[in-house]
Specification:
By secondary structure, the protein is an alpha+beta fold. The chain is built from 16 helices and seven strands. The strands form two sheets. The chain has a five-stranded mixed beta sheet with strand order 3-4-7-5-6. It has a two-stranded antiparallel sheet with strand order 1-2. Helix 8 links the parallel strand 5 and strand 6. Helix 10 crosses helix 13. The radius of gyration is 20 Å and the shape is globular. InterPro entries: AraC-type_N, Homeodomain-like_sf, HTH_AraC. Pfam families: Arabinose_bd, HTH_18. Keywords: DNA-binding, Transcription, Transcription regulation.
Length: 349
């Protein structure tokens, strides 16, 4: 099943593309997307189709479109979920409900809250089936989450820092205008760092009665497709594996299941946890190996291998070459202007 996303991003895209000289109708047609999506925010399209729109736009000079759309994002752009979110008592509650009702927004995006001392990190992960989601897609997702944070904490709220794993663009003007001065690239994760206490700051607009009413309306909303347990596991692994929590116990706990129940339910759909772990490892391995700041040893550690030799054996079994050889060939292709993001003998989800 394709990963689906709401077309609300494209209604925002339409306005912003025109402002920088891009014809949104022509661009959508070139990307193979029906232009009616530009005016209908609650349709569902494959995530890959939205990514193609950004790719075509980039060739037309549409830089920083993702963060521009994130900057323009409002609470109302969360569609049917907006009223319910507006009346949650705290940001912590909002983020929990976003996960509960993700099927109304995006099959692709997951947000995980990590709390360390007086700091909270909002990790934003994208499940796309591609080894690289693309910087525009990541910046759009982080931007939408940041707009949600501002909806709860105030329109002028600034986080401690905002992080992106990809390299910095040529200009940071739009990023700093939106996120503030502390925007860091080539980071260990994509996400937002804020004071832990901000998670529990009281929302003065919260109304429990309206929240209850909004939930009743939400529960009447149709599901566009049956939620996939395997995709939920993939999303969770994308977040937890680099944090050293790729075993079945923390993954099942985040999904509200016991390890035995998770394994049994996966087996009923013809899947195994170990196969999904292997799949996510393969995707993340390629993503990390294409980032020069990570040594091969770093990649092994991020993927949960205690020994570099174990990672090398696993990678060679998956891709029929050592990780160092694959990385060398990748960057050689890059200098020749021909980037191939995934080994020819291995395919992503």
């Amino acid at each position: 099943m394709p990963l689906l996303v709401r077309t609300a991003s494209l209604t925002k895209y339409s306005q912003i593309a025109r402002s920088i000289g891009i014809d949104p109708v022509r661009t959508l047609r070139a990307a193979g997307v029906d232009p009616s999506c530009l005016s209908m925010p609650d349709l569902r399209i494959p995530e890959a189709s939205l990514a193609r729109v950004f790719e075509v736009s980039a060739h037309q000079g549409g830089g920083s479109l993702g963060v521009r759309i994130g900057e323009a994002w409002k609470l109302a752009d969360f569609g049917a979920l907006s009223l319910f979110l507006q009346h949650q008592p705290t940001l912590r509650d909002v983020l929990a409900q976003i996960e509960c009702y993700r099927h109304l927004l995006s099959d692709s995006v997951a947000v995980h809250v990590e709390e360390i001392d007086d700091v909270a990190v909002l990790h934003v992960a994208l499940l796309t089936g591609r080894p690289h989601p693309g910087p525009e897609m990541v910046e759009l997702a982080v931007g939408a989450v940041f707009s949600l944070v501002r909806a709860m904490l105030g329109s002028n709220y600034l986080p401690r820092s905002v992080h992106f794993a990809h390299a910095a663009p040529a200009s940071l003007e739009v990023h700093r205008r939106f996120f503030g001065q502390r925007v860091e690239f080539d980071s260990e994760c994509d996400g937002i760092v804020l004071a832990r206490q901000d998670l529990d700051r009281a929302n003065p607009l919260a109304d429990a009665h309206l929240a209850h009413y909004a939930r009743e309306l939400l529960d009447l909303q149709p599901r566009y497709q049956q939620e996939s347990l395997a995709d939920n596991v993939r999303r969770t692994l994308h977040i937890l594996l680099p944090r050293g929590q790729g075993a079945i116990e923390p993954v099942s706990a985040r999904l509200g299941l016991t390890p035995r129940t998770l394994q049994r339910q996966l087996e009923q759909t013809g899947m195994r946890f170990s196969a999904l772990l292997n799949e996510v490892r393969a995707s993340l391995a390629i993503r990390y190996l294409t980032q020069p700041r990570h040594s091969v040893s770093d990649v092994a550690d991020l993927l949960g291998f205690s020994e570099l030799s174990a990672f090398s054996r696993w990678f060679s079994g998956e891709f029929r070459q050592a990780p160092s050889h694959w990385r060398g060939a990748f960057f050689e292709r890059g200098t020749n202007g021909s980037l191939a993001p995934y080994p020819a003998n291995h395919s992503g989800h």
